[in-house]
């Protein structure tokens, strides 16, 4: 299964989600490929220093270059998980032929509306809170996919 995480600039939330999910999926021995992209990402931008630091605290390396969401990436993905309702709506508008595989992360995992808070421009503490929020949701996602693959 190919999973694509999407946020705004692909420097904070979606790259954090990508590596956190890779870690969770590895523990569950899931056969997945994972990427991330941003709706308004610069090509080859660097991940936020606080995102790198927040993940480093959990012994997870983030060596990341940002990438813009594209038709190719959406077509590659079996599942597109966005960080916010707005990201979902913009992705659905741009890639309407793929609407059936685009969800917010909270919608897909918990069946509820809601956004992942954006730590951009905030303190390390803001990034840690986002990391922890993502971590819980992505552990749930890994459990759910593990049950499906059995």
Automatic annotation (TrEMBL):
Taken from the record, one Pfam family name reads LMWPc
Give this protein's Gene Ontology molecular function annotations: protein tyrosine phosphatase activity
For this protein, the record's SMART domains field holds: LMWPc
Recorded superkingdom: Bacteria
Q: Which UniProt keywords apply?
A: Hydrolase, Protein phosphatase
Q: InterPro entries in the record, alphabetically? A: LMW_PTPase, Ptyr_pPase, Ptyr_pPase_sf, Tyr_phospatase_low_mol_wt
SUPFAM superfamilies for this protein: Phosphotyrosine protein phosphatases I
Which Gene3D superfamilies would you find in this protein's record? 3.40.50.2300
Which CDD domains does this UniProt record tie to the protein? Answer: LMWPAP (cd16344)
What positions does UniProt annotate as the active site of this protein? Answer: 7, 13, 118
The Phosphotyrosine protein phosphatase I domain, residue ranges: 1-144
**Which protein family is it in?**
Belongs to the low molecular weight phosphotyrosine protein phosphatase family.
Q: What PANTHER family would the database entry show?
A: LOW MOLECULAR WEIGHT PROTEIN TYROSINE PHOSPHATASE, LOW MOLECULAR WEIGHT PROTEIN-TYROSINE-PHOSPHATASE ETP-RELATED
Q: What is this protein called?
A: Protein tyrosine phosphatase
This chain's source organism reads Bacillus swezeyi
Give the classification, highest ranks: Bacteria, Bacillati, Bacillota, Bacilli, Bacillales
């Amino acid at each position: 299964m190919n999973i694509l995480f999407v946020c705004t600039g692909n420097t904070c939330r979606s790259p954090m989600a990508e590596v956190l999910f890779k870690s969770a999926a590895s523990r569950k021995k899931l056969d997945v490929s994972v990427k991330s992209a941003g709706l308004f990402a610069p090509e080859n931008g660097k991940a936020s220093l606080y995102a790198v630091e927040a993940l480093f605290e959990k012994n997870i390396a983030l060596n990341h270059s940002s990438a813009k969401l594209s038709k190719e990436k959406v077509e590659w993905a079996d599942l597109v998980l966005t960080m916010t309702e707005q990201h979902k709506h913009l992705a659905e508008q741009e890639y309407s032929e793929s609407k059936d595989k685009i969800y917010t992360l909270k919608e897909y995992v918990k069946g509820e509306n809601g956004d992942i808070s954006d730590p951009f421009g905030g303190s390390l503490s803001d990034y840690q809170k986002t990391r922890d929020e993502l971590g819980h949701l992505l552990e749930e996602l890994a459990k759910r996919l593990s049950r499906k693959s059995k």
